[in-house]
Specification:
Oligomer: single chain
Number of strands: 8
Strand content: 5-15%
Largest sheet: 5 strands, antiparallel
Bound molecules: adenosine-5'-diphosphate, magnesium ion
Distance between the termini: 32 Å
């Protein structure tokens, strides 16, 4: 049972807990899946070195923002880049560095137009950083929750389709995102760019996140967590959160809801109420949502209590493709989510 006083700590300790990766089929820096087929262990570690960027080659300008990893800076390295500097004060053990390199190993294997371009990493302690292309657009979070932008149904569907394409690619490479949320999805000239895949473990390595005190739950974070993850937050040992492809699908369902409603599910519910409801299989009501049955069915499928009943991203892409294209009879700026109650 989770009581209100404990809930923050329960969640925070689960983020902070060190653990090994629980994905059986995830690719790592040793190329576990590819490696079995191609037997390239040496080449793999060599090619990892090729992605090493000496920290002093980067020219770092202003901070863009803070996240769970540390600080993201804009910078220059053969053009504009984003530099994610990890907040690791005590990088004294080999294991931590190896874990970081393993995440870098995941990152460098991704090439898809809806995924952020990974350019390299600074892998020499004490300065650990990830270098990616700099996104010029805004995140879906900024569009939806800060600017209160309304997308029409065609654009909403198009954004969702691009997310399913990027995510479908990641899953086909055996990579679990683990932190799919509107803050990690950029929109750049109508193109979706997904960031921060497979970095959840790096987050847990960051010193700042080891401290339980002083960390608050980011608003809207819990609602991306599937029932099986929520339920494992409650147990005493939170080291092995059961992230898998189906938990990414659940998180996608929440993004689809945000796109449709302009809000997070369980808005204004305290964390312990969300944990209790989701853990029991209670879903956000869709009664206020004026959308077609097919549109709502996608939400219900992604949020299925049993992970085995959730679709995969390839199926979702097909389903989204079959949603009727609306001709905009009224004003083009007419909002998708007509219900005032959803916004107030
Ligand atoms: P979060 O995803 O929780 O917002 P991050 O550490 O990932 O935390 O990001 C911190 C800030 O930096 C956010 O405002 C995010 O939008 C911005 N940011 C992260 N990566 C990039 C990028 N590649 N290009 C531009 N801005 C970025
Ligand atoms: Mg992020």
């Amino acid at each position: 049972r989770v009581n209100s006083n404990d809930s923050d700590r329960t969640i925070v300790s689960s983020i902070a807990g060190d653990s090994t990766d629980s994905e059986p089929n995830r690719l790592d820096s040793q190329g576990s899946q590819e490696g079995e087929r191609l037997v390239w262990p040496r080449q793999n570690s060599l090619s990892l070195r090729e992605w090493d960027i000496p920290y002093d080659e980067l020219s770092i300008s202003e901070p863009i923002g803070n996240g769970r990893f540390g600080t993201v800076f804009s910078g220059n390295w053969h053009g504009s880049v984003a530099v994610k500097v990890l907040n690791m004060e005590y990088l004294d053990d080999e294991k931590t560095l190896e874990a970081f390199k393993s995440e870098v190993g995941t990152f460098r294997k991704t090439r898809h137009e809806n995924l952020i371009l990974f350019m390299g990493a600074c892998m020499k302690p004490p300065k650990l950083a990830l270098v990616t292309s700099l996104c010029k657009g805004l995140t879906l979070f900024t569009h939806i929750h800060l600017r209160k932008d309304k997308f029409n149904m065609n654009k909403t569907t198009n954004i969702a389709q691009q997310i399913t394409q990027g995510m479908g690619y990641l899953h086909s490479r055996g990579i679990i995102h683990k932190d799919l949320k509107s803050k990690n999805i950029f929109l750049e000239n109508n193109k979706v760019v997904i960031t921060d895949f497979g970095l959840f473990n790096v987050t847990r390595l960051c010193h700042g996140n080891r401290k339980c005190s002083g960390l608050s739950i980011p608003p809207g974070w819990l609602c991306y967590l599937s029932p099986e993850i929520i339920r494992s937050l409650r147990s005493s040992d939170n080291d092995d959160l059961p992230f898998n492809k189906a938990s990414d699908i659940y998180a996608f369902g929440t993004v689809w809801y945000e796109l449709l409603c302009g809000e997070w599910p369980f808005k204004e519910h305290p964390p312990e109420a969300i944990i209790w409801q989701v853990g029991k299989g209670i879903k956000q009501s869709l009664a206020h949502l004026q959308a077609s049955k097919d549109t709502k069915d996608i939400l219900m499928l992604c949020w299925a209590f049993k992970s085995s009943e959730r679709p995969d991203f390839v199926q979702l892409a097909t389903t989204l493709g079959k949603l009727p294209k609306k001709r905009l009879a009224r004003s083009p700026s007419h909002p998708v989510h007509l219900s005032r109650s959803a916004e107030s």
